[in-house]
Fold this sequence. Notes:
Number of domains: 3
Number of strands: 27
Largest sheet: 6 strands, mixed
Distance between the termini: 24 Å
CATH topology of the largest domain: TIM Barrel
CATH architecture of the largest domain: Alpha-Beta Barrel
CATH class of the largest domain: Alpha Beta
Shape: globular
Radius of gyration: 26 Å
Strand order of the largest sheet: 11-16-15-14-12-13
Oligomer: single chain
Amino acid sequence: MRNSSYVSACLLAMSLFAAGCSRTEEDARIERLLSQMTLQEKIGQMNQLSVAGLTPDMEAAVRNGAAGSILNEVNPEIINEYQRIAMEESRLGIPLLVARDIIHGFRTVFPIPLGMASTFDPELVRYGARLTAQEATASGIRWTFSPMVDVSRDARWGRIAESSGEDTYLNAVMGASMVRGYQGDCSDSTSLAACVKHFVGYGASESGRDYNSTYIPPRALRNVYLPPFEAAVKAGAMTLMTSFNDNDGVPGTGNAFLLKDVLRDEWGFDGFVVTDWASAAEMIQHGFARDGKDAASIALNSGVDMDMMSHVFTAHLEELVASGAVKEKDIDNAVRNILRIKSRLGLFDNPYVDVDRAAEVQYNDSIMDAAYRTALESAILLRNEGVLPVDISRVRRILVTGPMADAPHDQMGTWTFDGQKECTVTPLVAIREMYGDDVEVIYEPGLTYSREFSQRGIAAAVAAARKADVILAFMGEEAILSGEAHCLADITLKGDQRKMIAALAATGKPLVLTVMAGRPLVLDEESRVADAILFSFHPGTMGGPAIADLLFGKAVPSGKLPATFPAASGQVPCYYSHNNTGRPFRGTETMLYDIPREASQTSLGNTSYMLDCGFYPLYPFGYGLSYTEFGYSAPVLDRQEYSPDDVIRVTFTLTNTGRYAATEVAQLYVRDLVGSSARPVKELKGFRRISLAPGESGEYTFELPVQDLAFYGLDMTRKVEPGDFHLWVAGDSVSGEPVSFSVVAD
């Protein structure tokens, strides 16, 4: 991230060189086209339309230059025909930019973005995005509406599934990695333009209801919500999408401060901005625009370049120019931005796709292996009372049960328009294929889907459990329970799942619970009765083999939580990087079910505390167990005082003290003890995946520029404030003992 400006410049230079033109030649081409375009043709470039096959109306729109981009067509032959019409039958021969919501894979589905973040492996995420780009571009798609870098701290919000979780730094790192993976170096037709979304604050939607208002003050906006977008822009992101929400009364699509002052002037963004679906027209419902004409004027004048499916630009911009409410020079700038991206993608020179290439890249060995590795690294071991890994030599019968055991569609998760159930390997299928010759695999689902109520099904599963040596129960959420417009007030397991888990536990047989879901869940009851819990944010196409290998010890869990798991739904929003308050809770780290009922109904010292569920979450950010144990030494700083231009070097020793070769994610946290505005109790500033053999130790160093401690304080200027700090190196956000250092003024 520290070299992001350099990387962005290099990507731009490579793209122009690969396209066979210099920056000057690119600009000349754009200006030449602009000089030839009518106002209607310019407005057409700013219009994005959803298509479904070849239709006379869409063919006419493309032929007449009334569409600059289309979305939702994935048939390469149809895409080629639309491109042929644009190139050969439209007056100026400007290619289309073809878009699709490719959120965590195209045909080969990777874990949802929240699962990718659980890997804490940005290089693997980058590699997966590169392979996804190859799959998608082989069908003619050149633009994806990903990554989503909304900092998401409310597990009730369905779209937390699309994020990298609650932490600013983790969202920034993962978002930048996905941008680099999708876009590559723009040297060939496999570059897939990234679209960073949703600008900005959408993840703070009030009460976790989608599309709801947010109330993020300027300081929090700068310190928490904007940095991931800046990191993605500096990584070279070609496009950016406005958000549905209004923040403090101003909709994202009409926020000139964000789209002009911050994005263009401060960050130097030279790609283009697209609205979210119909969000320009929705400013009318917000009460921010009087009508469609007013909405078009506000959006254009605020810095929007392309309208997705509102039709307000095509309906009103020409009239607005004539009245003087909109300047044609601003339309010209929008079209320049759009044409610039089409040029960098090489579409003017090579708009077509080889229709035979899709069969070569979709589900090939490389992408299937990457999907498997991502699913493997993303799974988080939350609990293990010695039952995992399952020793195949000690069991004769295994019960596989639960609504998620053999649910290929639900296993893929949200936003999987193009994933195919028949290519998805479920845990049941994987366990039968891998171990069916060694043990008897009994399958009794109990519940056929996650919301089902079925005492008869539970009874059948319990009867089967009594005959088994170990129970592998697969619970969680159907895909439809998370994602856009799928928000929940109660984030416990749905249907009769909790009753089924309790009934299975009552058999006395070892109970291993694997949960597949699109959000953090409240698992307080499950943590009391299950002998082990493995959590997998919807793991995608290869989730079954990855989970089977983890359960049976062919691989060791290494995932860490990218979002806090609360002890109760009423705790949310619940996140580690909170401010301390004037009356912080200071007590033992105990859960509600360990507190006597009478004690839980009294005030504990007039502190920040909930009487009925306590203070602490069930599982904290960064948490994740292994089949081995890791020991951390106390971190050692290279000195005690630093100036703002220094680099902090902190060294620690990590030891694998257990019996399995495994990987640990070492995490670096910092606290600024006193600031001109109150600072969080901890902030993630770095992480590193470290693999060690049993008994092996290694000495490792984090390098943290002091400038990474800068923040927007009382005067709203980003700077490092002198003072005292604490620093931790640990395996999660609540472990370890801090060391101290100071930053002194120059």
